[in-house]
Amino acid sequence: MNAQEFLSLLREPGRAGRLAVEGASQSLSYADLARQVDACAERIAARPARPARVLASVMDNGADWIILDLACLQLGIVHVPLPLFFTPAQWLATIDAAGADVVAGPDSLAAILLERGFEANSGRPDSPSLFHRSATPVTLPDRTVKITFTSGSTGAPKGVCLGAEEMLNVASGLAAATRPLNVRRHLTALPLPVLLENIAGVYAALIEGAAMITQPLARIGLQGSSRFDPAMFHAALGASDAQSAIVLPQMLRAYTGWLRTTGARAPSGLRLLAVGGAAVGRELLAAARGEGLPAYEGYGLSEACSVQTLNLPGDDSPGSAGRPLPHAQVRIAPDGEIEVAGSPALGYLGQDTALPRWLPTGDLGRLDDAGFLHVQGRKKNLLITGFGRNVSPEWIEVLLTSQACIAQAVVLGEGQAELGAVIWPQPGIGEAQLHAAIERTNGLLPDYARIGPWMLARDEFTVASGLSTANGRPRRDAISALHADQLFPRKAAQPIL
Predict the structure, then answer these.
(1) Mean pLDDT, residues 267-292
(2) Where exactly are the structural domains of the chain?
(3) Of 70, 101, 68, which is closest to residue 4 (Cα–Cα)?
(4) Could you tell me the CA-to-CA distances from 222 to 189, 402, 451 in Å, in that order?
(5) Do 328 and 76 meet the contact criterion of CB atoms below 8 Å apart?
(6) Which residues contact 278 (CB under 8 A, 6 or more apart)?
(7) Which fold has domain 1-378?
(8) Element of type H or E holding 216
(9) Residue 13: CB partners within 8 Å, gap ≥ 6?
(10) Are 268 and 236 in contact (CB under 8 A)?
(11) Region 373-380: what's the mean pLDDT?
């Protein structure tokens, strides 16, 4: 499916009066959405002397974000959606790196954008402002229509260049795979600039003719990249009458715990609560389903235009990441690395090397006899103990955080005789409870993977503390530097007799 075929779906006569977007302040039918996309595209293109080439957006979840994204696709200009949880310095760095000549967002951006040569061009009170400048064009891979920025282990944003056909291929595959669930209302619970929500929550919903329920993130209970209020999420989920939503593992963990402790019941109309972004684990899935949540794990990456595998009702193997979706091909390299093909990104911003047809993901895994993918951790994070055993820390961390009293955990121990763990507990948890939780986890592990020394983290793993990336992954080097001296104190050298 190409962009024009996709956009033509908005104008199908049979959809005209059907609800497309239900936002905080407006509800749009498919006919309304098509008209607003046209109006937004005209506004963006209204400066013929300086036609837009790359548009960056800094916007909260809402109907305006969806309209702007579709208008960029209609115009064929590059959209660079920036998450609100990026810092202003990261916004400016990515805007400059992408060669953006237009920025869409609130008037409050003027203070930082004027210093970068942008001119304010305020729009209507009910629409985002557009800021323009003359920018030196940046060389991009041919057919780029979107640049999604992900923050790696160093926290430095990395731009992945995506094509329309590849993104829509993934969205079409997701739509086909979930069609038996007949989802008509989807709640956008993740930031829309996050590619997973953009592809699976917007494009797939539009292909199916479903409605997107979208609210500012604060009303969903999500603040920044890692602050989550499960009570607010529960209220938003119930009020939306949503049949599907996408959450991160830490959101599922917090929501499951909240349901258990409060006795509240999960919304009965929910048919699919897809979980992605990191490993989930069989224990958390079982706990979530025990509370009535239809939680199913998937796997994907930006370099493959998001979702590649997904468990679904009736086709499920808890603890796995699911089977490959219709658009995806998955294989395991001789060294255990997962490789994918089918919908590759076009390349990285600032690099002129095309990605290979079979893309090495950097993740280790296996395919079982039934075709389910089991992800076993990041290849670069693999620990080699002092006894020469290879251990994936993510394997143990998933088991640790499956314990109700542990909020965050990082396993260390490169070259050590035994592994150690840095633990951030749930509020109000004492050391005795943590010790018991670690012992329970050790009972599930072989001797070489068990936790020996452990300690309370000196700070929570967040962007503000410098111990987490913007997308919520632990910065292992920083955590090790802050804690290894206590976790693995150096012993005085012993004489050799």
Answers:
(1) 92
(2) 1-378, 382-487
(3) 70
(4) 8, 21, 32
(5) no
(6) 248, 249, 250, 394, 472, 473
(7) Rossmann fold (3.40.50)
(8) none
(9) none
(10) no
(11) 90
Q: What would the pLDDT profile of 462-474 be if each residue is shown by its tens digit?
A: 878 889 876 678 8
Looking at CATH, the fold of the domain delimited by 382-487 is given as GMP Synthetase; Chain A, domain 3 (3.30.300)
pTM above 0.85, yes or no: yes
Whether the per-residue pLDDT at 227 is higher than 90: the answer is: no
The pLDDT of 299-311, averaged and rounded, is: 96
The amino acid that residue 196 corresponds to is L
Residue bearing tokens 């979840």 = 61
Give yes or no for residue 156 having a pLDDT over 70: no
Alpha-carbon distance of 3 to 145, in angstroms, equals 10
| Mean pLDDT computed over 36-41 | 96
Identity at 243, one-letter amino acid code: Q
Q: Where are the alpha helices (DSSP H) in 20-155?
A: 30-44, 63-75, 88-97, 110-113
pLDDT at 226: 65
CA distance 461 to 433: 20
Higher pLDDT, 417 or 240: 240
Give the CA angle between residues 443, 444, 450 to the nearest 5°: 70
* Residue with more model confidence, 139 or 202: 202
The whole-angstrom separation of Cα 268 and Cα 286 is 18
**How far from the centroid of its chain's Cα atoms is residue 302's Cα?**
9
Contacts by residues 45-51 (CB-CB < 8 Å, ≥ 24 positions apart) = 45/75, 47/132, 50/101, 50/132, 50/134
CB atoms within 10 A of CB 475: 22
- Half-sphere exposure of residue 357: CA atoms within 13 angstroms, side-chain side: 1
C-alpha atoms less than 13 angstroms from C-alpha of 459 in its C-beta half-sphere: 15
Q: Give the pLDDT mean for 127-137.
A: 89
Sign of CA dihedral 348, 352, 358, 362: negative
The distance from CA 241 to its chain's CA centroid, rounded to whole angstroms, is 23
Contact 461, 467 (CB under 8 A): yes
Torsion angle defined by CA atoms of residues 429, 284, 330 and 246, in that order, rounded to the nearest 10 degrees: -90
Q: Which SS3 state, helix, strand or coil, does residue 390 take?
A: strand
**d(C-alpha 42, C-alpha 72), whole Å:** 10
